[in-house]
Amino acid sequence: MDEQYQQHGAISWSELMTTDVPAAIKFYSELFGWTTEEYTGAGMPYTIVKVAGKEVAGIMKTPPEAQGMPPMWGIYVTVDDVDATAKKAEELGGKILFPPTDIPTVGRFCVIQDPQGAVISAITYKMPE
After folding, report:
1. Tens of pLDDT along 33-76?
2. Separation of alpha carbons 73 and 13, rounded Å
3. What is the C-alpha to C-alpha distance for residues 51 and 69, in angstroms, rounded to an integer?
4. Do 52 and 21 sit in the same domain of this protein?
5. Residues ≥6 apart with Cβ < 8 Å to 17
6. Structure pTM?
7. For the CA atoms of the chain, what is the radius of gyration?
8. CA 13, CA 78: separation in Å to the nearest integer?
9. Where do the H-state alpha helices sit in 19-99?
10. Which of 3, 14, 11, 4 minimizes the C-alpha distance to 49?
């Protein structure tokens, strides 16, 4: 991941949750010329989207806890401490829709809803050892 995306406050990742991953891959690959690669480190099927060989986004099947939601793109903002960010979001009138949770080999994330209802995810990436 480019260093600029590891900065606190930077939009660092986009992700599609969908009911039909193969159809989404076909559509976006043909539309934008994206290439994809299966990623096995997330503990679930996950597809990495690449542009010019660089990882730019992910595509995943809508998880059980989000069933009933329409397919949607979401964004992740890098933060220094996802737990502190979740707490601050609540203090500012937001809601935590998915609490801070570890993603194996990736980092820790949460899903926040702002006071107006918009949804965004925060993530603290695991630093390479």
Report:
1. 999 999 987 778 999 999 999 999 999 999 888 888 899 999 99
2. 10
3. 28
4. yes
5. 60, 61, 62, 63, 66, 69, 71, 72, 74
6. 0.83
7. 15
8. 9
9. 21-32, 82-91
10. 14
The phi and psi torsions of 44 (rounded to 5 degrees) equal -160, 160
* Predicted local distance difference test score (pLDDT) of residue 65: 84
Report pLDDT for 127.
73
Tell me the residue type at 86: A
Domain count, the chain: 2
| Same-domain status, 59 and 30 | yes
DSSP codes of every residue in 38-59: EE-TTSS-EEEEEETTEEEEEE
Say if strands 11-18 and 72-78 run parallel, antiparallel, or are unpaired: antiparallel
| Judgement on whether residues 59 and 87 belong to the same structural domain of the protein | no
Backbone angles phi, psi at 79, to 5 degrees: -135, 155
In degrees, to the nearest 5, what angle opens at C-alpha 87 toward C-alphas 125 and 115?
A: 105
Q: Which two tokens stand for residue 40?
A: 């096995």
